[in-house]
Write a structure and sequence with these properties.
The structure is a single chain. The protein is of the alpha/beta class. Helix content is about 40%, strand content about 15%. It contains eleven helices and eight strands. Strands 1, 2, 3, 4, 5, 6, 7 and 8 form an eight-stranded mixed beta sheet that branches. The longest helix has 14 residues. The protein starts with a strand and ends in an 8-residue tail after the last strand.
Length: about 290
């Protein structure tokens, strides 16, 4: 089985629609794909309707958190999307995205960059607006060569010249909320230092003690030595090690199935989840 547990669609900052994502996942030879858009579940229905035969969909989200001033992302799988407490917290994060993006655009304009809200809104195309959309605008304007080049202190990285903080959840509270909604939590790309500051391993141990289920080990932003270290840490802390592409369509260079999750680990995730169940494809995308 080939299992990719971290992918994005146009419901947040990917370039594939949810329907395109699942069709592309099937064409890439995946058996299981997770839809984990940022702080939203808006793409679920479209993905399920287009799900090709032979592909199983895991519903999820990538949730924005902050610990001791350091941003981190929590992958949540197979939770009840209508559970009131978790829904309310996700809405707080999502609703702060627009004013935050507008403030960053204002900062960029003060720096002499002719980016506009209308440009970023067009790029987001109705998705949950975020820094990757602003980064894409900078690429369009020729300010930077790639989206990743925008995530430096020169521009949009944490603490960067145009950076603006947003509402982000406490990860300990998020673990509690996801578990109460029947879901499973995995710390996304915990050692992706290319993106900015990362939390220390002592904090990961504290999160594990609070009920964190796993850490994303195999990821494009982790070098081989880092992956080996994280795999050992997962073993020491009793955490499930996952792997995934963090696919964003054409917005990033990663490809579907670039990294995958062991079937036994996937099986344990599904065993722990009670809020929702994986959806097997029935050929809904055939001929579309």
């Amino acid at each position: 089985m080939r299992i990719d547990l971290h992918c994005h669609s146009t419901a947040s900052d990917g370039t594939d629609t949810p329907a395109e994502l699942v069709r592309n996942a099937g064409a890439a030879g995946l058996d299981v794909v997770a839809l984990t858009d940022h702080d939203t579940t808006r793409g679920y229905a479209e993905a399920v309707a287009a799900l090709p035969a032979g592909l199983t969909l895991v519903t999820g989200a990538e949730l924005s958190c902050r610990l001791d001033g350091v941003g981190l992302h929590m992958l949540a799988y197979l939770f009840d999307p209508e559970e009131p407490e978790l829904l309310s917290e996700r809405e707080l994060v999502r609703d702060d995205r627009v004013p935050r993006a507008q403030a960053m655009i204002g900062n960029l304009q003060e720096l002499g960059v002719p980016v506009t809200w209308e440009q970023v809104e067009r790029i987001a195309a109705g998705g949950s607006v975020g820094r990757p959309h602003i980064a894409t605008a900078l690429v369009e304007l020729g300010v930077v060569r790639s989206v990743s080049d925008a995530f430096t202190t020169e521009w949009l990285a944490d603490g960067g010249r145009a950076y603006v903080a947003k509402h982000e959840s406490d990860p300990f509270e998020m673990i509690r909320l996801v578990k109460a909604a029947g879901g499973v939590t995995v710390f996304a790309h915990p050692a992706a230092s290319k993106r900015g500051l990362t939390v220390p391993e002592s904090a990961i141990a504290e999160l594990a003690a609070a009920g964190l289920d796993g850490i994303e080990v195999d990821h494009m932003d982790h070098e081989p030595a880092t992956r080996a270290r994280l795999r050992g840490l997962a073993g020491d802390l009793g955490l499930l090690p996952t792997g995934s592409s963090d696919y964003h369509g054409s917005r990033k260079t990663c490809v579907l199935g670039e990294f995958t999750t062991d079937p036994e680990i996937y099986g344990e995730i599904t065993r722990r989840a009670t809020g929702a169940f994986p959806v097997p494809g029935a050929g809904g995308g055939a001929g579309r």
